[in-house]
Amino acid sequence: MKHPAWIPPRLYPFKSNFMEIDGCKVHYLDEGRGPVMLLLHGNPTWSFLYRDVIQGLRGSWRCIAPDYPGFGLSAAREGYDFLPESHAKIITELIAALGLQEITLMVQDWGGPIGMAAAGADPGRFKGFVIGNTWAWGVNGNKRFERFSHIMGGRIMGILIARFNAFVNLVMPRGVARKKLTREVMNAYRGPFPTPASRKPTHVFPWAILGSGKFLTGVEQGLAGLSGHPALLVWGNKDMAFKKEELQRWQSVFPQAETHILKGAGHFIQEDAPQEIVAHIQHWAQNLGRN
Fold first, then answer.
1. pLDDT (mean) for 32-60
2. Measured between alpha carbons, how far is 142 from 129 in angstroms, rounded to an integer?
3. For residue 143, with 0-12 CB atoms within 10 Å meaning exposed, 13-18 middle and 19 or more buried, which class applies?
4. DSSP notation for 173-199
């Protein structure tokens, strides 16, 4: 398929694949050969976020990067709710349909809860985890998360998102610390949300930080069954959202994890430090005998 004009071919030189799941047209990349690396994005991003990581890994990994319905090139069916628990079911079904085994899962932002939900549902399919700036547990009582959910998931922000694509235009530039995103890159993040109705998915996610508390508690409970897996933590220390407390929580979940601080990197570590991430993954995997 020919990509829309808002996707720069030189930055996203990949073949698109599609699969119908639960009435949604799910887009995913499937690049390279080798052990499986499943790459899950958050809000308001899509597989474009992983473009440089994929180009760095696809020589020795099979990189699979889906877009959730309503994000990137994936189309949601009528009535789809865009909740993280629904996205997790889509990813679980995609994994099963592709017959993926011995998966290394990389997650960041909402990819954490969504990916860990999928891993908790079928831990035997997963070999290890690469964890960026994210979380996978309930946050009720955490004032920082509660404040963000109330403000960004509230009515006024909903109006601003619908009218001005505010989540993309406000959060993306602030989430990158080492550089300034170019107009070309920003247009690739704006592209999936051309109309007020199409921007709803970016508003559902911040609301769901509190609104999907039951789902997040279930994901948290599932972490115990994953804690014996190898894990690599790649953490931007200039993140506006996830701090040292979340990193330490991950270190307690995966006590044998290897940790690398991406100094000066913000929330979107795939934009700020893709080459460092690739190097850390390759070294970590080599030590584990994965490739």
1. 98
2. 25
3. exposed
4. HHT--SS---HHHHHHHHTT--STGGG
Q: Domain boundaries in the chain?
A: 17-139+216-285
> pLDDT per residue over 256-286, tens digit each?
999 999 999 999 999 999 999 999 999 999 9
pLDDT of residue 290: 59
Residue 288 has pLDDT above 90, yes or no: no
Residue 183 pLDDT: 97
Annotation marks residue 239 as catalytic: yes
User: Whole-angstrom Cα distance, residue 48 to residue 248?
Assistant: 29
* Per annotation, catalytic residue among 27, 67, 87, 239: 239
> Model confidence over 60-71: pLDDT tens digits?
999 999 999 999
> Rounded to whole angstroms, how far apart are CA atoms 224 and 213?
18
What pTM was estimated for this model as a whole? 0.97
203 as an active site residue: the answer is no
Give counts: helices (H), strands (E), the chain.
13, 8
- Residue of 87, 267, 272, 280 marked active site: 267
The CATH number corresponding to 17-139+216-285 among 3.40.718.10, 3.40.50.1820, 3.30.70.120, 3.40.50.1370 equals 3.40.50.1820
Catalytic residue chosen out of the listed positions 109, 203, 272, 280: 109
Q: Nearest to residue 94, comparing CAs of 128, 69, 73?
A: 69
What pLDDT shows up at residue 112? 98
**Across residues 209-229, what is the average pLDDT?**
96
CA atoms of 231 and 250, how far apart (whole Å):
9
Active-site residue, 30 included: no
Per-residue tokens: 153: 């998931």
